[in-house]
Design brief:
This protein is α/β, with parallel strands linked by helices. It has one domain (6-304): Alpha/Beta hydrolase fold, catalytic domain (Rossmann fold, 3-Layer(aba) Sandwich). It is built from twelve helices and eight strands. The protein has helices at residues 6-13, 24-30, 95-105, 123-140, 158-168, 170-174, 198-206, 209-214, 221-226, 250-266, 280-286, 293-304; strands at residues 41-46, 59-63, 70-76, 109-113, 146-156, 182-188, 240-245, 270-275. It has an eight-stranded mixed β-sheet, sandwiched between helices. Strand 7 (240-245), helix 10 and strand 8 form a beta-alpha-beta unit. Helix 4 packs across helix 5 (158-168). It is globular and about 50 Å long.
Length: 314
């Protein structure tokens, strides 16, 4: 069974963009440094003053366009929920910072966030961190001339799961006294959309994944459902743009397709695109590359979505 499903095991253990795994060759081919004056970057902004806040992890970097009333993308990094940071560099390339510089240079603000990692905190605190960062942007982006009504939540790999879960569950924003503030959501090469899938669960059980992630040998069906974004789809969820790599493992592609189908069934406005010839890890490098399809699709989505018409909770 392990040989037959080797790709699926890799899906659980290695394919949630551990950026150290992006080869030097991949960075050289895909990474093109975007230019943005340092004066338009605000680094290490704390987004919560909670008593349990981590001064390093509970912070974000802001990348600011010129002009005013621009949309803002809150970007959540990947790393299997146990790795990653907003300032992570690979072969000298600051991949997440480059996403910020690229979109800001094109008129879209970006907040690249860090968050506390498993197992030092539990899964719910990770989601709360993403929600707190998004709430901070909503409350403060006008101070930098951004439009608080045009906030997009995006993430890659495990970051896509976190972004989707927060966007679809109103309890996180309401716990901070905020409405649903996201105009749209962009999950990229996501995984963990449905932990209730039995094959996924059994393979994770065999490999000891749940002990690593949740400090539990096994996880109950109610818990698996609770952590899965797919079960929070509703008609009033913000519009989704789902992207996935055409050459990533079939199981990962199916995760995105099934998530999209669940959103459509619930009546959530949704789009999905398979990016030809791309792979899971390198997808994140395409997000700041002007000639790559993902950056173009994201740009169109954020520039054209009418954030004044979709405000069900305001």
């Amino acid at each position: 069974m392990k040989n037959r499903h080797h790709g699926f095991i890799v899906f659980f253990l290695f394919l949630f963009i551990l950026l150290e795994g992006c080869s030097t060759v991949g960075v050289a081919l895909y990474y093109k440094k975007a230019k943005l004056p340092e004066a338009q970057i605000v680094r290490n902004v704390p987004y919560t003053k909670s008593a349990d806040a981590d001064p390093v992890k509970n912070s974000l970097n802001l990348f600011l366009p010129k002009g005013k009333n621009w949309p803002t993308m809150v970007f959540v990094h990947g790393g299997m929920w146990i790795e990653g940071d907003k300032d992570l560099k690979v072969s000298g390339a600051d991949v997440y910072g480059n996403i910020g510089r690229y979109f800001a240079s094109q008129g879209i603000g970006v907040a690249v966030i860090s968050y506390r990692l498993l197992p030092s905190v539990d899964w719910k605190k990770q989601l709360l961190d993403v929600a707190r960062a998004t709430g901070w942007v909503y409350r403060h982006i006008h101070e930098y001339k951004g439009d608080p009504k045009a906030i997009f939540l995006a993430g890659h790999s495990s970051g896509a799961q976190l972004a989707s879960r927060v966007a679809m569950d109103l309890s996180f924003m309401s716990s901070m006294g905020l409405p649903q503030v996201m105009c749209g959501v962009i999950p990229i090469s996501g995984a963990g959309y449905n932990f209730l899938n039995e094959e996924t669960y059994q393979l994770g059980l065999e490999e000891g994944v749940y002990k690593e992630l949740f400090n539990q040998e096994t996880i109950s069906k109610p818990f698996r459902k609770k952590i899965s974004p797919v079960f929070y789809a509703r008609k009033s969820s913000p519009p989704f743009l789902i992207l996935y790599a055409g050459r990533e493992e079939k199981e990962l592609q199916q995760e995105s397709l099934k998530f999209y189908n669940a959103l459509v069934k619930a009546g959530t406005p949704s789009q999905i695109y398979s990016i030809p010839k791309e792979r899971h890890k390198k997808m994140v490098l395409t997000l700041s590359h002007a000639n790559k399809m993902p950056a173009k699709l994201m740009m169109v989505f954020m520039r054209t979505l009418d954030c004044t018409s979709y405000r069900p909770d305001l």
